[in-house]
Amino acid sequence: MRREEILAATVDEIEATGLRALRVADVAGRLGLSASLVIYHFQTKEALVAAAFAHAGESDLNRAREIVDTDAPATARLSDLLAWYLPSGSTRAWTIWMDAWSSALFDAEIQSTLTVLDREWQDVFARVIADGVATGEFALDGEDPGEPAAVAATRLLAYLDGLSVRLMVGPGEEERATMLAWVEEFADTLLARDATSAAPGGRAPGESLPPHS
User: Fold this and answer.
1) Number of domains in the chain
2) Which one, 23, 150, 156, 198, has least CB within 10 Å?
């Protein structure tokens, strides 16, 4: 049994039942293994959970990088990224991140994992923002576009995360469409972006998990 299979099963179990109800025995049961074999690979439940969050995060990040690393204009890539990132009522993927954030208040290992993932998310958003500055699609204060792009990425992610939690608590497609429009408007203002060139993308939110959000 590969380590990645155990991590994927752990992510599935957290999404299905929530972190508070997670039992190593249930993860093992999904794979037809004994709980002791799972513990053999990860030593403790806490280490298993932290590794599962890292596994899920990298899966989401890889999908986000696929969206960003294309030849499309930066405006289109950013809109696709925003539309994919914001959760819909049909996905359970964001439940794992809500669990992770709340658990990080009391678990240093999870907090460390999320800190690393957060920096990587900032890098993804900052890259497409810097691309837009370089092509004249976006405008930021400062002579060096690198640092302002990182700050803009942090602000945009904070706005997205706040709206995403609200959507997960009371999901609805009509509300999601409204909030996606808010995100686009926020990006227009933050990046001095031409609103007429920003069309919400058609990516399926959360498709990267069994999809951070």
Assistant:
1) 1
2) 23
Tell whether 63 is covered by a domain: yes
pLDDT band at 207 (very low <50, low <70, confident <90, very high): very low
Find, among 145, 148, 127, 113, the residue nearest to 81 by Cα.
127
**pTM for the whole structure:** 0.81
Copy the structure tokens of residue 196.
């007429």
Residue 1 in domain: no
pLDDT tens-digit profile of 37-78?
A: 888 889 888 899 999 999 988 988 999 999 999 999 999 999
**Could you tell me if residue 144 is inside a domain?**
yes
* Domain CATH for 107: 1.10.357.10
C-alpha to C-alpha distance for 106 and 93, rounded to whole angstroms: 22
> In angstroms, rounded to a whole number, what is the distance separating the alpha carbons of residues 146 and 168?
32
